[in-house]
Amino acid sequence: GYVQITGRRKEIIVTAAGKNVAPAVLEDRLRAHPLVSQCMVVGDQRPFVAALVTLDAEMLPAWLAQHGKPDLDVSAAARDPLVTAEVQRAVDHANDIVSAAESIRRFSILDVDFTESAGQLTPKLSLRRDVLAKEFAGPIEDRKFEQWVKNATDAASKADVTSTPTVLVDGEKLESTTIDGLVSDLQQAVEAAQTG
Prior knowledge:
Layout: E1 13-14, E2 20-21, H1 23-31, E3 36-42, E4 49-55, H2 60-66, H3 74-77, H4 81-95, E5 104-110, H5 129-135, H6 137-158, E6 166-169, E7 172-175, H7 179-195
Parallel strand pairs: 4-5
Antiparallel strand pairs: 1-2, 3-4, 6-7
Helix pairs in contact: 1-4, 6-7
């Protein structure tokens, strides 16, 4: 057989499950949407692939007017449900060309754009992934915690009422009899991971 390499080797993301993901394929497809200015796919050593997305400030007013929305600044638009739904459609479109394991499961719309002057882009407008990962560590880590909470909630809702839901976090078994207990266990695990 033949091997086909997509993307730059140093940018390849390896998820916690060991799946190799070429972020450029997803990022290029997302950036093709008129509402998206920049995006960065994250997921290295994480249980799923996520994306940080910025809005195009020049296209935003025209898009909002076309959809009957009042003029919003980028910060307000990042939290607008209609804008979020449109970015979700762009993410779904990008996910169409990759496998389920490589697909973007969560995204965060940032209220700022990536710029060269802030050191987030190179002079040829390539992403400085290390700089962006440090600067936006909060939204990246929130995605991980959200997924853990979602897994705990899903496990608890599917569990037999007579059994104790079990959730694994980094191979460690968390047991609790209530959703609040699972969330508390997950928060402790996150705090331990951040300090350790």
